[in-house]
Amino acid sequence: MAQSLAHVALVVRDYDEALAFYVGKLGFSLVEDSYQPAQDKRWVVVAPPGAGPGATTLLLARAATPEQAAFIGNQAGGRVFLFLATDDFARDHAAMIAQGIAFVREPKVEPYGTVAVFADLYGNLWDLVQFADGG
Known about the structure:
The chain is α/β, with parallel strands linked by helices. Helices cover 19% and strands 41% of the residues. It has helices spanning 15-25, 66-69, 89-98; strands at residues 7-12, 29-36, 41-47, 57-62, 80-85, 102-110, 113-119, 125-131. The strands form 2 sheets. Strands 1-4-3-2 form a 4-stranded mixed sheet, covered by helices on one side. Strands 5-8-7-6 form a 4-stranded mixed sheet, covered by helices on one side. The radius of gyration is 15 Å and the shape is globular. 18% of the residues are buried.
């Protein structure tokens, strides 16, 4: 049996503001943006730069209820929630700083690699990480 994660859903307030951040600031690619009339929603999928076929993507899911909206920016209870791996930490860290991305923990070298924590437009915490073993 072969399984993999296809998408990770991220609850957002608004599709277009989320796209402005993920595509406009982080440089993600827009994989799909299609309207789903039966559910009156959009299917919005983005992928990190250089993601190949079959890579896990991010599904931007607009909150549909007040209960869902309450979790925007806090899907993991304040913990780092997503991990953006890079092949060049210094390049991507500098580019993100230039785009005004807020880092909440400065870069550190750990046994597993170089890492810094940034917040997305809603406050979700991400690791930007270059793994020491390339993985």
